[in-house]
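User: Let's play a game. I give you a shape written as tokens, and you guess the letters that built it. Ready? Here's round one.
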């Protein structure tokens, strides 16, 4: 499992870890039942605090991406695909709302924005 941490990113390190593991789960690179690295080994390999990795794992467990238990470790949890899809639609809508606001402020018309979206989707 490759996780890349950027110290120059505005995104907190725990969130970078959370986002990358979540993406690995959603893209099925990590499958249901796969073990995640232990908190200490992952913290050591990323050269970050154990607390940072622990927070990322706690968020992953809160959002039901992993199951964790003391002594056993952390494993990819079965996914509720409908719930995940709805979460992703909310995120997409937030980004699209931001794009629409920028477009309106820049005088870009809806047909131009639609064409841009189509072009991005086809890449």
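Assistant: Ready! My guess for every position:
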């Amino acid at each position: 499992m490759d996780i890349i941490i950027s110290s120059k990113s505005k995104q907190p390190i725990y969130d970078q870890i959370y986002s990358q593991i979540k993406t690995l789960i959603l893209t099925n690179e990590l499958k249901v039942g796969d073990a995640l690295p232990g908190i200490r080994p992952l913290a050591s390999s990323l050269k970050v605090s154990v607390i940072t990795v622990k927070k990322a794992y706690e968020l992953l467990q809160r959002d039901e991406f992993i199951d964790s238990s003391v002594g056993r470790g952390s494993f990819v949890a079965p996914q509720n695909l409908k719930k995940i899809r709805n979460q992703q639609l909310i995120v997409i809508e937030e980004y699209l709302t931001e794009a629409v606001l920028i477009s309106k402020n820049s005088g870009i018309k809806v047909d131009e924005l639609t064409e841009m979206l189509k072009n991005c989707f086809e890449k």
